[in-house]
Amino acid sequence: MKYRSTVTPKLHSLNTLNPQVKAVEYAVRGPIVIKAGEIERYLQEGGKKPFTEVIKANIGDAHAMGQQPITFLRQVVALCTFPELLDSPSFPKDAKWRARRILQSCGGQSIEGMFWSYSASKGVDCIRQDIAAYIEQRDQGVPANWENIFLTTGASDGIVSILRLLVSGQAHARTGVMIPIPQYPLYSAAIAEMDAVQVNYYLDEDNCWALDVHELHRAYQTAKEHCQPRVLCIINPGNPTGQVQSKKCIKDVLHFAYEENLFVMADEVYQDNVYAPDCQFHSFKKVLYEMGPEYFNSVELASFHSSSKGYTGECGFRGGFMEIVNLDPEVKSQLVKMLSVRLCPPVTGQAAMDVIVNPPQPDEPSHGQFYKEKGLVLGALADKAKLTEHILNAVPGIKCNPVQGAMYAFPRIFIPPRAVEEAQALGMQPDMMYCLRLLEETGICVVPGSGFGQREGSYHFRMTILPSAEKLKVLLEKVHDFHIKFLNEYSALDEAQRSVS
Amino acid sequence: MKYRSTVTPKLHSLNTLNPQVKAVEYAVRGPIVIKAGEIERYLQEGGKKPFTEVIKANIGDAHAMGQQPITFLRQVVALCTFPELLDSPSFPKDAKWRARRILQSCGGQSIEGMFWSYSASKGVDCIRQDIAAYIEQRDQGVPANWENIFLTTGASDGIVSILRLLVSGQAHARTGVMIPIPQYPLYSAAIAEMDAVQVNYYLDEDNCWALDVHELHRAYQTAKEHCQPRVLCIINPGNPTGQVQSKKCIKDVLHFAYEENLFVMADEVYQDNVYAPDCQFHSFKKVLYEMGPEYFNSVELASFHSSSKGYTGECGFRGGFMEIVNLDPEVKSQLVKMLSVRLCPPVTGQAAMDVIVNPPQPDEPSHGQFYKEKGLVLGALADKAKLTEHILNAVPGIKCNPVQGAMYAFPRIFIPPRAVEEAQALGMQPDMMYCLRLLEETGICVVPGSGFGQREGSYHFRMTILPSAEKLKVLLEKVHDFHIKFLNEYSALDEAQRSVS
Fold first, then answer.
1. B121 and A CB contact within 8 Å
2. For chain B, which has fewer Cβ within 10 Å, the N-terminal or C-terminal residue?
3. Contact call for residues A253 and A232 (beta carbons, < 8 A)
4. Which cofactor does it need (chains A, B) (predicted)?
5. Chain B interface includes A77 (CB < 8 A)
6. How large is the average pLDDT for residues A238-266?
7. CATH no. for residue B433?
């Protein structure tokens, strides 16, 4: 037997680890959130801070922020889980009807047939059919084929699966993936892990974070010098920007994708979260259809949706789906094979998704309550979107674009040059230092803009608009006071007022 | 605008696809299962076959085969999903108590606190603590630290995560991953996708599929010539073999891993599925502990468990966990980061896992029913394991090792040389041809041994022992008749009797 010293160095260390895993970053649950958890525990154990609670505005987790779940959705999932409840008089008929239908489509050949287990890897057939019907209605008649719908474990799972399918990390043919900056860091994380090339296109902050197709061209041409750009990722409504794309913009993007042979990944998980009265959600697929068969029959597209956002906010069930358009049949078979290795998405998430695409109809008993609850959630979000924008824009040195949709504000913050230097001396991103101080001094947890990407020399943070109106006001007032104090500390109040306006 | 012909070739075709995805194979839901689905639909639509139903013995999906879920587990998950039920008199107190506790640990800082949403990426704290307590009890006092427990989306997710962490596909340092042959094809699929090197070690069919440490040495030495073996995967109880490893064997394996600096991945998802009276499940961690601190403080180990197997068979909730031992703290941080990108495992699966590790105690109201149901399931499985072995061994040309544990029989089948030639002429694996004919002629769906790996020139299939006893008997009799007919067709009955015995 070989001799080994008592202080054994681990066989697997950072040195031997998969370098692509090391390259991954994910700020939404990154260092600042870990710090927030530590402070929270410290407070719970009786520790003292200048505040009594940590407000987590770092992640789009509606229920954790006190939003009530949609009753009907929870009823359907509970009925599917414990079918004895199908006999209970306290559950409405329409919920029971849906649960029975899902269970029947789920169990397959079992005689009992009423206990869900593994589903097909693509998802339960009747749910895929419901989703296709929903998409046709949403897109005013544009055809949707249920065979092109795949249930996923949240939208993240679908996005990663499609990227893995299309992206090759091989040295001689590294795939370029175009992503917006700022972006949702799942994209950069997946690209790093797959050893693909991240190709940044910058959204136009001065134009309410709109996507400018000239910038797409610039990014594409630059990238072509060192990789093969194949995939174009879009997030609409935008995360973290809250921007809602116009139909004109989507057309330009699709035309560009058509010309440059790019696979379009449309992250449309916030499709139900549009608040600005002059904005409307247009699906990429619908716009593609309107551009005519030359486009509709050729541009390859995947669209992603989720049960975690919208008005349901069901993050824990991990529900989601993707629709693929124009995928080569052989490539589709490869996708199915890849999905089958992971067996199936959670059935609870599939059922949650079914309720979203197949809500109670006017003649069904749950219709009233469902739409009342939905309206309350979306109404409150719209109010909080406005409130957030207004209060932030009243702070000297903070400028916030309108929160047209999604669940986040991504304000630009002025950080005085001396503070920037201080951060750099600490080996820290300036906005990371800012957010850490905000957390330490006020208990508010937001994510630094550097976690999403931003133009060199500009600084931001992302905050959710999910806390209750009351708590959100407290949060925003604390940000206001903190920011002024921060500026004063560097005697930079006047400078800030001139700089960001 | 560029001109494009009307019959547009897809931009992304098999040629441009990620080559690692193309290399993936997964027989458990592969071509034969797709074919079975087609036949099923054909029958449903009134088509005629020599049988009236397809019996799917291809996948370990207990509820689809008519096994009843454990009532208590479903109650807890339903209560967590729809907390209004906490006021219902028709749910037992112990189920309510568990649901409340999970929800409280789940919701974090929300005042309402009773609606689960995202959990921490590692899983709900109180569930991780319950799992650690369960492991300590299972391993008769060997310490388990809850900070080393991570909830996963089924065991597959944990296995893939650990492999991704450890495995590098980079040309100059390709990682070798040692896997048993036959294996569960998740392993080969993940290795192919990550561009690592699959290092086969063969289990000893003549010795009831036992693992022979000399074979490990052989495989390791051979592999070292072309890759860097870093990981050793073990499946115990075995899938597809049904073998249960002795403590002596586990010690030998751990000693080998210690000497050769291998990270041990112990797939122990069938730990509750041991039927043979002379066999017992020993966890790799417990045996490692018994080998003394020199081993226990140095061998890096990950053990995986699942809610999909055992006596619960809850496949749809996608519950699972892993325990990691001796991981370098920096590597552990990287693992946490990687898990956080996917946000969290489904909360329903986490709750299901909690019931498994924290079942009703003798003084709790659900204790009686719980253990009655558990006993029924495990008793029936033990009977069916015996039944399967006996009936298969009575077929000339079929030899089946005892099904000591897990949920599968993996009998060796004699395929006459002329049939082998015929298959090869069709460009098909001989056992694939056999299984396809079995399906077409009898409606029985099993998976060819080539999907799991087998010694050159030997043929097998994997079948689950999950159908009801009555249906299982029918299935086995049909296999019996089919096999004899198949042999007669090639005038090979005598040859078969001599060959496999």
1. yes
2. N
3. yes
4. pyridoxal 5'-phosphate
5. yes
6. 96
7. 3.90.1150.10
Hey, is the C-beta of B24 within 8 angstroms of any chain A C-beta?
Answer: yes
Alpha helices in B59-185 (DSSP H): 71-81, 93-107, 125-138, 154-166
Q: What is the mean pLDDT of residues A64-87?
A: 92
Number of Cβ within 10 Å of residue A90's Cβ equals: 11
- Alpha-carbon distance of A438 to A451, in angstroms, equals 16
Q: Output B346 or B17, whichever has higher pLDDT.
A: B346
What was the pLDDT predicted at B195?
86
Confidence of residue A56 (pLDDT cuts 50, 70, 90): confident
Domain count, chain B: 2
Contacts of B164 in chain A (CB under 8 A): 18, 21, 193
Strand B398-399 to strand B412-413: parallel, antiparallel, or no bridges (unpaired)? antiparallel
Query: What residues of B are in contact with residue A338 (Cβ under 8 Å)?
Result: 21, 24, 193
Q: Which residues contact A173 (CB under 8 A, 6 or more apart)?
A: A228
CA B279 to chain centre: 19
Q: Does A429 touch chain B (CB under 8 A)?
A: no
* Model pLDDT, residue B171: 60
A138 and A193 in a common domain? yes
Buried-state track B174-205, b at ≥16 Cβ within 10 A, e below 16: bbbbbbbbbbbbbbbbbbbbbbbbbbbbbbeb
For A127-145, write each residue's pLDDT tens digit: 999 999 999 999 999 999 9
DSSP A204: B
Q: Which of B82, B110, B121 sits opposite A78 (nearest CB)?
A: B82
Nearest by Cα to B196 from B185, B187, B205: B187
- Whether the CB of A1 is below 8 Å from some CB of chain B: the reply is yes
Query: For strand B175-181 and strand B197-202, is the pairing parallel, antiparallel, or unpaired?
Result: parallel
B166 and A12: CB-CB below 8 Å?
yes
CB-based contact A387:A469 (threshold 8 Å): yes
**Domain that residue A345 falls in:** 125-357
d(CA A94, CA A104): 15
Same domain, A169 and A297: yes
Q: Tell me, yes or no, if B333 comes closer than 8 A to chain A by beta carbon.
A: no
Rounded mean pLDDT, A108-137: 82
Angle formed at CA B394 by CA B393 and CA B400, multiple of 5 degrees: 10
Question: Between A and B, how many residue pairs show a Cβ–Cβ distance under 8 A?
Answer: 294
Regarding whether A136 and A231 lie in a shared domain, the answer is yes
Chain B within 8 Å of A166 (Cβ-Cβ)?
A: yes
Measured CA angle at A158 (ends B333, B25), to 5 deg: 90
pLDDT at A3: 45
Q: Which residues of chain B make contact with A61, given a CB cutoff of 8 A?
A: 117-118
The residue among B267, B307, B35, B16 whose CA lies nearest residue B163 is B267
User: What is the CATH classification number for the domain harbouring B135?
Assistant: 3.40.640.10
Q: Give the pLDDT confidence score for residue A221 in this predicted structure.
A: 96
A294 and A173 fall within a common domain: yes
**DSSP letter string over A368-434?**
HHHHHHHHHHHHHHHHHHHHHHHHHHTSTTEE-----BTTEE--EE---HHHHHHHHHTTS-HHHHH
Exposed, middle or buried by CB within 10 Å (0-12, 13-18, 19+), for B261?
middle
B54 and B131 share one domain = no
Instruction: Please determine, for residue B249, whether its predicted confidence score (pLDDT) is greater than 50.
Output: yes
Residue pLDDT, tens place only, A147-206: 999 999 999 999 999 998 888 766 667 899 999 999 999 999 999 888 899 999 999 999
Residue A283 phi, psi dihedral angles, 5° rounding: -75, 145
Rounded to a whole number of angstroms, the distance from the CA of B302 to the nearest CA of chain A is: 13
> Same structural domain for residues B345 and B381?
no
Residues forming a β-bridge with A210: A204
Token digits of residue B455: 């010694």
Domain for residue B404, yes or no?
A: yes
Give how far B226 is from chain A: nearest CA, Å: 17
Asked if residue A336 is part of any domain, the answer here is yes
Q: Is A75 on the interface with B (CB under 8 A)?
A: yes
